[in-house]
Amino acid sequence: MSEQQEQQQPVFSIDKIYVKDMSLEVPGAPQVFLMQAQPEIDMQLASESKQIEDGYFDCCLTVTVTAKADDKVLFLAEVAQSGIFQIRNIPAEDLDPVLGVACPNILFPYARETVSSIVNRAGFPPVLLSPINFEALYMQQRAGQLDAGNA
User: Fold this and answer.
1) Residue 150 falls within a domain, yes or no?
2) Whole-number percent of the chain with pLDDT over 90
3) For a Cys staple, 126 with which of 26, 39, 52, 116, CB 3.0–4.6 Å?
4) What is the Cα–Cα distance from 38 to 78, expressed in whole angstroms?
5) Is residue 148 part of a domain?
6) Quick check: 2 pLDDT over 70?
């Protein structure tokens, strides 16, 4: 392969995976540990990406997990799991799906493990978050943006 052909090959690689931020609140401790009610778990996701250098992007997936029982918050855990990705020679129309689907797919298992770990260290049973279909979320988000643009 010539050098020019090699330069045109698409590149997608992970340079670094890291926890950008994490927090855990147990507002009702120690009384919450005496409660017998089964908690309701709510999970919220947010993802954002930005170019940090030519060919390098930082993608951050924020997972917020709230556990409530009897209208009392047992805990609130938030993890911002980030990654630095090298992405080159990918057509502009394909870059957004890579950042909105592929990168969060890579980051989610790390965020899931971090949430489970900090919740467990706080004295609660580990929270095992279900897998997420980031492609479906991305398509919903795109459809919402198109609807908003037509309004």
Assistant:
1) no
2) 82
3) 116
4) 21
5) no
6) no
CATH number at residue 29: 3.10.420.10
What's the per-residue H, E or C state across 7-67?
A: HHCCEEEEEEEEEEEEEEECCCCCHHHHCCCCCEEEEEEEEEEEEEECCEEEEEEEEEEEE
Residue with tokens 């965020």: 111
Q: Of 130, 55, 43, whose CA–CA distance to 88 is shortest? A: 55
Residue identified by tokens 């930082």 is 58
d(CA 31, CA 16): 40
Helix or strand (DSSP H, E) at 67: strand 56-69
Domain that holds residue 50: 3-142
CB atoms closer than 10 angstroms to residue 74: 24
Q: Name the token pair of 49.
A: 């990406």
Is the pTM value of this prediction over 0.70? yes
Residue 117 lies in a domain: yes
CB atoms within 10 A of CB 118: 21
The letter for the amino acid at 70 is D
The answer to whether the CB of 55 falls within 8 A of the CB of 11 is yes
Q: In this structure, what token pair is assigned to residue 35?
A: 């409660």
Query: Based on the structure, what is the number of domains in the chain?
Result: 1
Residue with tokens 């090699």: 6
Give the integer Cα–Cα distance in Å for 110 and 18.
Answer: 9
